[in-house]
Amino acid sequence: MKLSIALLLPTTAVAFAPTTSSHRAAASTSSLKAGSDEYVVGILGDLHIDPRKMEDYGTGRSHFLPIFDEAKSDGKGVSLVSLGDLGESKNCDHNPESDSELFAGTTACHEMAAEFLGSFDGVPYDVVGGNHDLEGLDEFETDQENLDTYLKAHGKETAYFSREVADKTLLVGMGSTIFREAQFTSHEVTIDQKQIDWFENLLVTHPAEEGWKIFVFSHAPPNGSGLRVLQENHVVNGCCWLNHSNEVQCKKFIELVREHRSIKAWFSGHFHLGQDYQDSITFPTIDPKEGPYPNRGSCVFAQTSVMRAGTSRDGRQQSRLIRGNKDGFEICTVDHQKDGKIRLDATITFKGDDNEVGIYAHDDETYDHDKYFKVYQPCAGDSLHPPDDGFKRYNSDGNIDPFDIKKDTIAWWYMSCTRALGMLNGNLIEYDSSTLAPLGLVVGADELVGKKIGVINSGLDADTCAMMFEDEEGMEGADCAALAGDIREQAVVLIDPVTNIVTVVQPNEDGSYWRKIVRNKMVRMKEVRRVKAAKMWAADVMGLEDEADANVVSSWGPYTTTSGTAKKTAVPGLTAPSAL
Fold it and tell me: Can you name the residues that pair with 162 across neighbouring β-strands?
């Protein structure tokens, strides 16, 4: 049921209504032609609007209005960009007919967000979809229905946008278009192939050689951005980067950044963490004395915080501000906890059309809280620099000797298949082999800390292979010569020094190691309902007073076994005695 926006808006939000017609989002390509090389752009991180808690949004808006007013009076181009996740992923007492419906992704959510974003006194806005913006699960059956409502509310024709904010200066954004249909976690930010093709064509037709400067906006950052102030849940669940679970698409964005020097900056949100840390901004080049060339084209990457206190994961309430002209731009923080104080974070100067140099404007703030971790990212070095101290080398037998794992162990290595594995907070993590950005969890700290880990050869010549598999059911006639192959086969092994049990960490079928274990939210909701139904049924047939006393477990496919036949479905240690 669609509720009238007038019924939803609390009194604190009514003030957001603009005095003139609402300046909603641009179409896929704005007809706006900038008449100046100077511009000011406000960037809002994850809003997660809760209609019961609107005060912080009014305060944040009041901080931006004088900035925009001054810029407009000076003849500068002005624009506002929202990085998505517009509504709170909770029930917000917004629908009298449902006490369980989530606010995020609903018609009411998008209409309220559009009213807020359109209330900055004539400043046009654009928005990119985040991982929560198609979460109107009770209202819409499909992602497409939800997406159509999102686009309509914000006056958009497509999930992407392009706006010329100043002479040959483009603001470009792409949004997530999948939630219900996600192959793995629904909170992965997925840019569909149509948008990727559009983006690549835009870059080809707006080259740096012709003076174009492009600022890109997406909810999550791309793999290869170098941003390291992250939350552990995004790393281990495979939803840190754009198109995180699609290996080819995940790498595509940084490949485009490296190829097209017209991309000058890329802004993202997603992590709900502040802007006080230098690791929330990365530069395309650094002094060779400080380390290897980062290979990020001519692009600065910047993370954006949040406006409302209840959505912050480290206590910060901040937005971003770009102030630019033909010679470069500044990245600033608008601090909503300090009456909108503007702090310069970095100055970027253009060096010709295809290079830029950035300078941090302040030191790191103290990392004095545990609301996030600073991701250890391996460094492979280059011709001027060796790999970092955590790099593990193979011995003369082609193995990595087992070493102890503690919570703070720093170590990483390449497998012969080029996959990169390493330790992070006691977890075994797979890293992208090119960018060395974390991809996901392989083995959790809960079963790894206190053990040893090593890498051994497991490849076999044809004769040995035939002998070993002669009596293995399902492996009769295996082409062992092909199995031996040219790439050295290896096994990652864990050793428990107490029990002397050795565990082999098997890769996925596609050769990757990180476990894509978080499923689509729709699937998980159905699983929860099945378990709840089973508890109610069990309590009834077993005569239990409380369904909570029913002992119900779940099992999942596909079967995992080295046997070529599937005779058993029990899960060792769960629905059957442990195999160990």
Answer: 172
DSSP string, 331-377: EEEEETTTTTEEEEEEEEEE-SSS-EEEEESSPPPP----SSEE---
Residues in Cβ contact with 467 at an 8 Å cutoff, skipping those fewer than 6 apart: none
Distance, in Å, from the CA atom of 126 to the CA atom of 225, rounded to the nearest integer, reads 22
- For the beta carbon of residue 2, count every other beta carbon within 10 angstroms: 11
> What average pLDDT is seen over the chain?
85
- Strands in 502-505's sheet, in edge-to-edge order, are 400-404, 452-457, 490-495, 502-505
Q: Copy the structure tokens of residue 432.
A: 């992208």
Angstrom CA distances, 326 to 70, 333, 418, stand at 19, 21, 42
Kindly list the distances between the CA atom of residue 428 and the CA atoms of 204, 376, 411, 551, in Å, as whole numbers in the listed order. 39, 12, 10, 32
pLDDT tens column, 125-173 = 999 999 999 999 999 999 999 999 999 999 999 999 999 999 999 999 9
Find the mean pLDDT for residues 414-435: 93
Categorize the per-residue pLDDT at 555 as very low, low, confident or very high, splitting at 50, 70 and 90.
confident
Q: What percent of the chain has a predicted confidence (pLDDT) above 70?
A: 83
Element of type H or E holding 532: helix 521-542
Any idea how long the chain is?
Answer: 580
Q: How far, in Å, CA of 556 to CA of 571, rounded?
A: 9
Residue 460, pLDDT score: 58
Number of other residues whose CB lies within 10 A of the CB of residue 120: 22
Give SS3 for 526.
helix
Judged by DSSP in three states, 516 sits in: coil
Distance of CA 254 to the CA centre of its chain: 14
**Cα dihedral 315→441→256→384 (10° resolution):** 90
Strand bridging mode 300-303 / 281-282 = antiparallel
Closest CA to 533 of 520, 547, 522: 547
Looking at mean pLDDT, say which of 376-380, 428-432, 463-467, 553-557 comes out highest.
Answer: 428-432
- Give Cβ neighbours of residue 28 (< 8 Å, ≥ 6 apart): 156, 157, 158, 160, 161, 162
> Which contacts qualify for 570-577: CB closer than 8 Å, 24 or more apart?
none
Instruction: Calculate mean pLDDT across residues 68-89.
Output: 96
Nearest to 101 by CA among 129, 139, 53, 146: 139
* Helix (H) / strand (E) containing 420: strand 420-424
- At 531, the amino acid letter reads V
Mean pLDDT of 327-341: 96
pLDDT the model gives residue 413: 96
Phi, then psi, of 113 in degrees rounded to 5? -65, -40
pLDDT tens digits, one per residue of 308-323: 998 998 889 999 999 9
The Cα 412–Cα 430 span in angstroms is 9
In this structure, what DSSP letter does residue 572 have?
A: B
